[in-house]
Amino acid sequence: MPLWRRGIPTRPSFPGARYPGLPSDRRVPWLLLLLPLAALAGWGVPQLLEDDPSPQAAASGAIGGTYLEGERALAGKLCIAIASDTSTSMDQVEPLRREATNELLPWLRANLPADDEVALAVFTDEALLTLAPTPVGSAPAAAPGEVPVGTGQTVATTAADALGQAFGGRSCASTALLAISDGEFQDEAGPLAAALDAAGITQTWVLNPKGPERSPVLQSPELADVHVTPISTSDDIGLTFARVIAGLTGQRLAGAPTAAPAPATPQPGAPQPGATVPQPPQPTASAPAPGAPAPAPTARPGTPAPSSSATTPARPPDAVDA
Fold this sequence. Notes:
single chain, about 325 residues, alpha/beta, Rossmann fold, 6-stranded mixed β-sheet, 5 helices, about 25% helix, about 15% strand
């Protein structure tokens, strides 16, 4: 029997001569049975060889409905540094920043090239990396837990120094520092500005739960480039992350609600909103000098101004034009 005829019988065979009308022997070739096995192997083997076969969580929250659109203008690697102020005044924000960071990491994997990097840190008067600079393609599904650090005072220079050293030599084309803090920094403006410059920070943002007001140190001209934006929910934090990233890559953030314009930052010496602005004293009329003609009387409001006919003699009522 030929090789192609060997296989699993599908119809019963009848010994002896074949007669018209009787069922004939039909067998499925063994080679045809190998096709589904080959297809299954072609799909399953790459899954087994992946470094991280576990499924990644999709981004959730408000940031989960957004994505970067358009051609990327940034030529090179984007590095994102997120620093959380863990001082006592920021305790109530801890659940919000944890949720926002957990939502951000899957969003980064879906929207940025795999070699862009992200790092996480906590700081007070000391700083500690909770996630060293990591390519977003290998970022964890959830942020590591925060740990206590320092004595509780807020010194932003520590975060800038720690993140600057962590990203040093990693060839970042642009680096964003996003500090979740009330901005009550105990730094001096000059050393803080120098630390941000030495760390190679392209943009610095303070996500402030207390509002858009700048603390005294941030009102210094040396820190005029530091952006302050208000937050009140984890969605506010997540959308701020996404908007900053879109701005640095030169892309459009699609699907995001329109951001309300931030109120203008008052300059030092400018009146605060709602304050009464003192008016300059109005000039008062002085007594005329001896011998000077008396000023013309000022008409009271509602009194018609004298017309030119006042100087013309009135015509008799019975006068007729020629």
